Amino acid sequence: MTTTTLLRGRGLLLALLALTVLPLSALAAGENYGRVSGYVYDPTGTPLSEVPLTISGPALQQPISRTSGEDGRFEFTQLPPGEGYALEVKVEGFTPIKKTGIIIRLGQTTPVDVKLEVLTETQAVATYEIVEKVNPIINPDSAQTGAVVTSEKVASIPVFTQVQAIPQLVAGVGPGNAPSSRGGLSRYGKFYVDGMDTTDVSDGSITSPMNFYAVENFEVITGGLDAQYNALGMVENVVTKSGSNKFTYDATIILSPAWSNAKASSATNQTPSTGGFLQSSTPQSETDFYSPMLAFGGPIIKDRLWFYVSGQWNISNQETPLTVNGVQENRPKDTNTRMGRLKLTWQPTDKDRLSVAFSMDDNVIGNNSSRATTSLEAESRIDRGGTFIIANYDRNISQDVLFQLQTGATNKRAFIGPQNADLNVPAHVDLGNNSFLTGSWGNYSNENKWRFQFDPTVLFKAGAHQMKGGLQLGYLTGRMQVGNTGNVRYFDRNGVCNPDDVAAGGCESRTTYYNLDGQPGPLTTSASVAQLGAFFQDRWTVNRQLTLVAGLRADVGRMYADNNQFVTNLVGIGPRLSATYDITNDRKTLLKAHYGRSNEVGDVYVAQHANPEPIQMAAKVVNGAFVECTPDTVLDPSNTNCTRSGGLARRTFDKTHTPPSVDELSLGLHREITEGTVLGLDVTYRRYNNLWVDEEVNQIWDASGTRVVGYVDPTKTGTQVLVHNPDDAWRDYKGMDLWVQGRTGGWDLLASYTLGFNNGTVDTYFDGYGANPRMKYLFEGATPDDIRHTFKGSVNYSTSFGLDFGFRARYLTGTPLWMNQSVSYPDRTTLYRSPRGTGFSTNRGTPNFNDPSTISELRNPDQFVLDAQARYDIGRLFQMSNKLELTFMVVNVLNNTDPTFYYDRWAPSNSDYGLVSGRSRPLQAELLLRFRN
Fold first, then answer.
1. Dihedral of CA 148/152/154/160: which sign?
2. How many CB atoms lie within 10 A of CB 836?
3. Contacts of 688 (CB under 8 A, 6+ apart)
4. Is the dihedral of CA 252, 258, 260, 266 positive or negative?
5. Confidence of residue 43 (pLDDT cuts 50, 70, 90)
6. Residue 858 to residues 322, 836, 846, 901: CA-CA distances in angstroms?
7. DSSP state for residue 520 in the 8-state scheme
8. % helix, strand, coil for the chain, step of 5
9. SS (H, E, C) 171-218
10. What is the pLDDT of residue 609?
């Protein structure tokens, strides 16, 4: 790398840091608070100005006072999420009024209107009129779609205690803990904690799982993003619990012994070589799970300094049924996860508030492979963990101006390698026995990733305008080491290869792994991205019925590969415009519309793509010995006994890029059908543009696309790849969500139906699209996450005597499949047939792979899962002031173990096509005991 390039990189970083001290307005990257707004009227319906209002609640250390404006409107903006808020209004000549039971939801506005009544002469004393406020799930100030789920709601339905699993409850979000949403890639998800971006810097997952009961509110945003967010997928923002002047505690233990869980009678996610399980004499596999959790908080200095600390320990033991070389066994797969969190909150003055939080987790999974083609001694282990520290500072400069600073760092480490952690034992692959792996696990990786975030912010009001704008600075970096145990891998056939006696037989070939210095050993590389985002947004309350939100953001990313080598710049502009209109002028029927664009300006995964790969020298056995094959060997293209791959990658990043982006257009109609319950209809169109592609640019193919007939540059025979973002690399989504959320009577509802259509040319980044330009047309069609119909419901019912019931149901239609086959010449690739594309026969004498009469739409099976739980407060029996809750939860009540996935790979012989490759996990029951105040 040249000195000039290095200076340019450092110059950019210095410029980014300098910008942070400029007096720009901003709002935090993710919100930590909710709002209450409304209007004050006299008995005739005339707005009243200069009316004093005071709000109080258990989440506030002190009450907050505001006055209504000229149009009668008032607003409390920075309210911690929680329940039990009360709004008081006391004006001379009117009956004092107190509205209680107000719920503050994260990132949302709770509408509360106040109509005053004249104090009559017969009233000797002006006593308060108490009005119980029932909150509708309706937000008149924003066109965002999604849902806010409180910790109490989550505790009342059968959900495993995973913070990252909550988005699955919301309309428009797919299954899994790193889900795709509304046509986007799973890597597009964002996870915020207390407003700070803690997303993994390379794959979009959560950096560090958290203690479940340390969270107060889960906000899931699926669309209509305000300008403060830059995300191409769903956003989960969790606000954690803070201490207060009241000492609180929350102790939980989860028990799920083996006898409470159904036994698996068939293999799950195993190849057909697993074998049959009919009339098996092997004991059925077992699963158990245990988890103690503890959280408590309170004052260190009353009214000034508070703490909240929590911890969780998950112990899981899951056996996998296998048939290994004709012998059946149940292989244990053990998972041990520990999580801890500490949060301190300091309020030195009424205008200042500082919180600092630290979280950590450690996760170890033994026998992670659990495959029928892997011997027990060659099993793999995962050892990963994460930490993050977050600091939030709030300063109320005035009633209309708030300054915030959010800053912090995250770290995630992950080791994937041999179970015994011995990196010196070579791996053996028996090609004559379904590529059976012995010796050692073989490939291993050790990755360490960091994020540094700095987001100064300000929010200010001017009449009917609430404005925000600001900066979000991030520095993402990662270091990766990849190698192979013993730096070598042997491929055996008809015996085990003895490298000291190759002539004895059993040896077919050997692959040796070298670093870039030409020495046997692992390869270590690093990559980084400097990001800068700037935005401005104005929320204009035109009148009681109409609110307009206009915003604009700009994002810049600068990517670096190993040794700080500059890769490329990415720049994106994202306009936002939305409106909400109260059709009936009673805060009960809202029409919402939104247009917005978000841009992806690089991450560590994309930057690592510019780095070299380990050099692999493959030597075959000739005349009873391995041929001489090292990085110094002069290779003859016609000699296949010694081949080379890896090293300095034949990839070149385009000098100019249009960054990946999404354009979203949505329209929604939300109606309060009963007091506290809302029915909504949201229609969404998304277009994902210019996704990352490896495009081969040197090989010249014949018309069929099956034979290379020349090279653009004859001096560079073989593959040459251009990494870029072409216009033909796209996805789109057309969908409709019909949902209901809220409380009515004893019922608490969160349910939805989604109709969606996902299409495009790209499954994920660098997925093979463009590897053979002649075959691009074969890739266009339904994407792998094209789930046409999704029903999901999370419903609970509470009785008056302490017993409640919770249910969760999911029905998903099957995802698409395409009959495909692998072709090894000239480069290993996969060819598809309709309906995604049209394939062809590559083997003479076999049925035509392009026979139109046999084309049909193929899909995985539909899935239906029902979970249930019952919870009872035992403390009532003993007249305890605290809660002692006993919960019995059953996951997959129907014990449905139907197939979930099929094999779609076709081959001329020994084809697995159409066989089951995955099944639903059987019934699992848990007993949960929770003691809290």
1. positive
2. 24
3. 183, 184, 185, 232, 660, 661, 662, 730, 731, 732, 733, 760
4. positive
5. confident
6. 28, 10, 21, 11
7. B
8. 10, 55, 40
9. CCECCCCCCCECCCCHHHCEEEECCEECECCCCCCECCCCCHHHEEEE
10. 92
Q: Give the pLDDT of residue 274.
A: 46
Residue 110 and residue 104: Cα distance in Å, rounded?
Answer: 7
User: Does residue 241 have a pLDDT over 80?
Assistant: yes
Predicted confidence band of residue 4 (pLDDT cuts 50, 70, 90): very low
3-state secondary structure of 752: strand
| Amino acid code (one letter) for 612 | P
Strand partners, 132: 100
Enter the tokens of residue 889. Answer: 């939860």
Asked if residues 221 and 234 have their Cβ atoms less than 8 Å apart, the reply is yes
Q: Token digits for 347?
A: 């309020």
Structure tokens, 665: 């257009």
Both tokens of 612, joined, read 């070299």
**pLDDT (average), residues 893-920:** 78
* From 78-87, 209-218, 378-387, the region with the lowest mean pLDDT: 78-87
Instruction: Quote the DSSP letter at residue 161.
Output: S
Q: Per the structure block, which two tokens stand in for 765?
A: 């980044």
Look-up: residue for tokens 């609640």?
57
CA distance 818 to 857: 8
Residue 821: how many CB atoms within 10 A of its CB?
22
The answer to whether 9 touches 441, Cβ cutoff 8 Å, is no
**Token duo for residue 924:** 């699992």
Alpha-carbon span 410 to 100, nearest angstrom: 40
Structure tokens at 548: 């307009």
Alpha carbon distance 236, 392 (integer Å): 18
DSSP-based three-state secondary structure for 151: helix
* Residue 843 binned pLDDT confidence (cut-offs 50, 70, 90): very low
Q: Are 199 and 177 in contact (CB under 8 A)?
A: no
Angle at the Cα of 553 from the Cα atoms of 548 and 557, rounded to 5 degrees: 160
**pTM listed for this prediction:** 0.86
Reported residue count of the chain is 933
From its phi and psi, is residue 224 left (phi > 0), alpha (psi between -120 and 50) or beta?
left
Residue 15: strand, helix, or coil:
helix
Chain segment 564-583, per-residue pLDDT in tens:
999 999 999 999 999 999 99
Paired with 445 in beta bridges are 416, 482
Q: Which helix (H) or strand (E) holds 859?
A: strand 858-859
Distance CA 470, CA 195 (A): 15
- In terms of Cα–Cα distance, which of 740, 802, 676 is closest to 156? 802
DSSP string over 365-405: ESS----TTB-GGG-EEEEEEEEEEEEEEEEEEETTEEEEE
Q: Which residue in the block uniquely carries the two structure tokens 């300098």? A: 18
- The pair of structure tokens assigned to 146 is 């999604």
- Per the listing, tokens 């070939």 go with 509
Quote the pLDDT of residue 824.
57
Using DSSP's 3-state secondary structure scheme, residue 8 falls into helix
CA distance 531 to 455: 12
> What are the pLDDT digits (tens) for 592-631?
999 999 999 999 999 999 999 899 999 999 999 999 999 9
Residue 38 φ/ψ, nearest 5 degrees: 175, -165
pLDDT of the residue at 832: 56
Mapping DSSP to helix (H, G, I), strand (E, B) and coil, where does residue 165 land?
helix
Backbone dihedral region for residue 195 (phi beyond 0: left; psi -120 to 50: alpha; all else: beta)? left
Cis amide bond preceding 614, omega within 30: no
Could you tell me whether strands 129-132 and 97-104 are parallel, antiparallel, or unpaired per DSSP bridges?
A: parallel
- Is residue 910 classed as helix, strand or coil in its secondary structure? coil
Whole-angstrom Cα distance, residue 161 to residue 212?
Answer: 6
Tell me, what DSSP letter sits at residue 686?
A: E
| DSSP string for 485-510 | GGGEEEEESSS---TT-GGGS-EEEE
